[in-house]
């Protein structure tokens, strides 16, 4: 992954810097007891540093054989320290010949496999280091190096894993955004052509009646189905719901659902209540106009609001009828519809003309 490249570059810099540090220490101690062997170990470290920097720069080579070989080379150079340093004075602790260079494989394992593998590599190197210190004559056993190795493996591994997860999420977000842009583009093109033609056929068919009315009904069904294809499948942010899928579930041969190509975003509870109010309005259509009555649901957004209108082809509502129904205890409109919407801070507009159908307009703040 691209996010790993800075980690591998940083490890390469660390390998070179720690190699120079080991060479300076060896020169400072005049090669210890065996200068030739000491410089031979430094040479092996230098060759492996160059090889490891190249190998880790190639993603295809970052596999278990390279990781295991890297760790074995570091442990071998570490175990060669007693042969270079010779006998140490009693009570004196000496830095091993590779010095901090042995942390390179630990960093590589941590970046490749996270904190668990980083800790495993640290345990191997720390065990070899502690074995050298314990086996020395009267040498103090220092665990500072082992502790630092474990901390390095765990912390770097954890940070590398978090970086990889962040990159994966970013990649998914970019892909989803690109897909949504393409979906929105197609939706605009279809809306400007096919959907408008289908809507026109639906309206003209209802006006002409007869066989044209059936053609209009089929056009309305296809319009609703085509709009549903462009509804964003990705879930909206937490606590927010797209109203369109909730409305689409009411679509049928008798009920035509028309929604915009872009999401109608509302808080979850508001969207559920809005959809329930639309369902109650459609129940009224079936109850008062018959199960075969046609109904149309239109949804749109604008000026910080979301509006859904439910229109039917029934007998309409006579003046005072709603008040009489409420007085008689029939609270379908006043409670199931108006009560829901007004409880959300919205308002309901009911327009009905006897013989020309009824339209219920529900508006809530977005």
UniProtKB/TrEMBL annotation:
InterPro entries: DUF5931, HATPase_dom, Sensor_HK_TwoCompSys. One of its GO terms (molecular function) is kinase activity. Residues 276-365 form the Histidine kinase/HSP90-like ATPase domain. Pfam families: DUF5931, HATPase_c. The chain crosses the membrane at residues 7-27, 39-57, 64-84, 141-163. Residues 1-168 form the DUF5931 domain. Keywords: Kinase, Membrane, Transferase, Transmembrane, Transmembrane helix, Two-component regulatory system. This is MacS family sensor histidine kinase. The lineage of its organism: Bacteria, Bacillati, Actinomycetota, Actinomycetes, Streptosporangiales. The gene is macS.
